Amino acid sequence: QNAPFLATIGSIKIYGSAIVLRCEPYHRFLGIHKKMNQQLIASSSGRYHFDTNKKYDAHLTVGRIRNAKALNPLHVQQLLNHIEDQFRNNTFLVQQCALMRRIA
């Protein structure tokens, strides 16, 4: 119901060890997030759900830094600049979204 739509990569951030691309349009991703949370609750009999106490941040995690604490601020900025050169303002088509169950 929410797809297809065009999304644009905005800012690039590092949260802890995660490298994330913030995405727009926010309202489309928020709608998908809410529907996935409802499905997650329904399919797990209420045992699992997304954290609803914090504001949702529409993003894609593109990687993780193995030892983020070892990077000094200059290295972090160089890494962000390199990623921004490749991804900032790129547009992509979201055709389908799915909540999938992982089997251990």
Report mean pLDDT, rounded to a whole number. 85
Shape: globular
- How are the strands of the biggest sheet laid out side by side? 3-2-1-4
Helix count equals 2
**Largest sheet features:** 4 strands, antiparallel
Low-confidence stretches: none
In short:
The chain is 32% helix and 27% strand. It contains 2 helices and 4 strands, in the order E-E-H-E-H-E.
Kindly describe this structure.
The protein has 104 residues and is an alpha+beta fold. Helix content is 32%, strand content 27%. The chain has helices at residues 26-43, 73-87, and strands spanning 5-15, 18-24, 59-64, 91-94. It has a four-stranded antiparallel sheet with strand order 3-2-1-4. β1 (5-15) and β2 form a beta hairpin. It starts with a strand and ends in a 10-residue tail after the last strand. The mean pLDDT is 85.
Summary tags:
2 helices, 4 strands, four-stranded antiparallel β-sheet, 104 residues
Write the layout of secondary structure elements.
Layout: E1 5-15, E2 18-24, H1 26-43, E3 59-64, H2 73-87, E4 91-94
Antiparallel strand pairs: 1-2, 1-4, 2-3
